[in-house]
Write a structure and sequence with these properties.
Lipoprotein; 4 helices; signal; about 30% helix; alpha+beta; about 170 residues
Length: about 170
């Protein structure tokens, strides 16, 4: 027998023995636990009962005082927005008091020099579908009408602008 064949015999034997091992064997089982196992028949996250006849309460339409306050805020927001001659810091700091957090984030990278509006040219009007917590006011400007989306968390808090953008039309 030559040396190559003699060296191959232990290798073949090792491979044959490795094939006899069950690869699905999980190994030794853990020792039994001393605490009892409790099984539950109820789901971990039960679904609450649903009343199929229930409907959500509609949000009331914005009243006259609420609409007046919204128009006032929208006009002030557009007036603060329409100051392209200011430095960025002056512009954004003048606009912040009229903006929600989302509105502030939307305009924080705006270059005021690129804002086409220079002035408000008339009174704002409430667009249809106004509620006590969300509405849109259209404000006329020298660059055409602008829609101001306003919101507030509840009817007893001030209106703030989410967005100020040209009216589509």
């Amino acid at each position: 027998m030559n040396r190559a064949a003699a060296a191959a015999i232990p290798l073949v034997a090792a491979l044959a023995l490795a094939g006899c091992v069950n690869s699905n064997d999980p190994g030794p089982s853990p020792p039994p636990s001393s605490s009892p196992t409790v099984t539950s028949t109820s789901p971990a996250n039960p679904t609450p009962p649903v009343d199929m006849g229930a409907t959500a309460d509609p949000v009331p339409e914005a009243g006259t005082d609420s609409q007046t306050a919204a128009i006032d805020t929208a006009e002030k927001a557009v007036t603060a927005f329409a100051r392209p001659d200011l430095s960025y810091e002056e512009w954004i700091n003048g606009l912040y008091p009229y903006l929600t957090q989302a509105g502030a984030a939307a305009y924080e990278d705006t270059d005021p020099a690129l804002v086409p509006v220079r002035q408000v040219t008339g009174a704002g009007t409430i667009l249809p579908a106004s509620t006590e917590v969300a509405l849109t006011v259209q404000v006329p400007t020298d660059a055409g009408p602008y829609n101001v989306s306003l919101s507030r968390p509840s009817p007893d808090t001030p209106w703030l602008a989410d967005r100020i953008r040209p009216a589509e039309g």
